[in-house]
Amino acid sequence: MSGPDKFNFNTLSLHAGHRPDPLTGARAVPIYQTTSYVFQGVEHAASLYNLERSGHIYSRISNPTVSVLEERLAALEGGVGSVCTASGQSAFHLAIATLMGSDSHIVASSALYGGTHYMLKYTLPRFGINTTYVHPRDINGFKSAIQSNTKLIYGETIGNPGLEVFDIPTISEIAHSNSLPLMIDSTFTTPYLSKPLDLGADIIMHSVTKFLGGHGIAIGGALIDGGKFDWGSAENFTTLNQPYEGYDGLNFYEEFGPTAFIMRARSEGLRDFGACMSPSNAFYIIQGVETLSVRMKQHCENAYNVAEFLETNENVSWVSYPSLESHKDYKLAKKILPKGSGAILTFGIKGGKEAGKKFIEKLNLFSHLANIGDAKSLVIHPASTTHQQMTPEMLKSAGIGEDLVRLSIGIEDYDDLIQDLKQALRASQRV
After folding, report:
1. Are 317 and 395 contained in the same domain?
2. Helices 414-428 and 352-362: crossing angle, nearest 10°?
3. Residue 364: which CATH number?
4. Contact of 134 with 171, CB cutoff 8 Å
5. 310 sits in which H/E element
6. Of 288, 321, 356, which one is at a domain's C-terminal end?
7. What is the pTM of this model?
8. How does DSSP assign 170-224, residue by residue?
9. Could you tell me if residue 204 is inside a domain?
10. Domain-located, residue 396
11. How many domains are contained in the chain?
12. What's the CA gap between 158 and 341, in Å, rounded?
């Protein structure tokens, strides 16, 4: 498909990155289930290995099916390139490994997915990479947390599970005034609800397992490069603007310019760490991307209606959903999320942890599992599952109390969801 800038969102979600197979006429994206690719000759092989021309060598580094998804995500986000990975966690790790080495520092929002928190807090310090956490609403805190060895500012468009809205435009100004890139995890919102690159972010990451896939059948991650950060003049980013012996002294910035980050992430990161996406998983995710806007509209409509219902329920002490006027970030959400605040909401159940257990066990339509973004509605108690390794102080900083229940609202009929919630809430209060 040529000229992606000429097409709108729904068209791109269906067509970007792919043309019908010229040999067979097949309209669907094929699953290229192969490990490797036949070279046209010795010189052709050498030019591929030297990054002198594009093409496929080995499916750990690139694959035609995965490439369709990468091009489609880049088009939807407005980026210059994308790399897909085995999971959202591997996408985050790939970004860190591409940008920095030992004696590096990250400034991160304190409102993060538990898996990301564990990597930043416990795993990366073993490799000399440390993190300072700042509450997403503490704008001045981001300024004061920056150190001489800081390489990245990181946050989530909507924090998981506290649902704090990250002020991307303001934080991006802080990052850029200090010659730092801003990376945003936009898993909760997808490019349908938010375009972080347009708001000032430089790199986007997704767990495509969630809303982009949308059906709970395939795990994957993605990085999208905005192509606007000046890696060449930023002294700290020697992985991108200095010769790399792993490719015979290649300087990625001099060779690839605005795509330096994403090229190094693929050619070094996937080559060396191997966290590649399988072609079959890419195929499944592509099916989800094709219906993204249709699903996200229903997700948002249902979530807003459920949030309004919970606000008036006598067994609920509080509700957090950015599109509610009662939310602390309501005005910011209206500004950067004009189409809606997504499918995730949290609430406090009266009776605390024990009532929460009863509530979850009495639900019929909601599945109790550790995922979000499925077409089906889901529920979890974060303090005892996804964030259970965090200390009480960490839980408090992340906005997670023992009464907090997280819902991922699906695309079922709204009335059926409400009836299920009503009966489970009543049951939660019985002695």
Report:
1. yes
2. 130
3. 3.90.1150.10
4. no
5. helix 292-311
6. 288
7. 0.95
8. HHHHHHHHTT--EEEE-TTTHHHH--HHHHT-SEEEEETTTTTT-SSS---EEEE
9. yes
10. yes
11. 2
12. 8
Same domain assignment for residues 68 and 195: yes
The strand pair at 344-349 and 367-368 is best described as: unpaired
205 and 148 part of one domain: yes
Domain C-terminal end among 288, 306, 335? 288
Sign of CA dihedral 295, 297, 303, 305: negative
pLDDT in tens, 361-409: 999 999 999 999 999 999 998 877 777 777 778 777 777 788 899 999 9
At 38, list the tokens: 């036949």
Domain region containing 419: 291-428
How far apart, in whole angstroms, are the C-alpha atoms of residue 176 and residue 153?
10
Tokens for 385?
Answer: 């599952």
pLDDT digits (tens, 9 = 90+) for 179-223: 999 999 999 999 999 999 999 999 999 999 999 999 999 999 999
Both structure tokens of 42: 């010795």
Query: pLDDT tens-digit profile of 147-163?
Result: 999 999 999 999 998 89
Q: Same domain, yes or no, for 103 and 49?
A: yes
The structure tokens listed for 54 are 């594009």
Q: How would DSSP label each residue in 12-52?
A: HHHHTT----TTT---SPP----SB---SSHHHHHHHHTTS
Domain match, 271 and 142 both: yes
Same domain, 319 and 269: no
The pair of structure tokens assigned to 157 is 């468009």
Closest CA to 258 of 232, 234, 223: 232
Question: Residue 3: is its pLDDT beyond 70?
Answer: no
- Please state, in angstroms and rounded to a whole number, the distance separating the CA atoms of residues 117 and 57: 35
**Does 264 lie in the same domain as 400?**
no
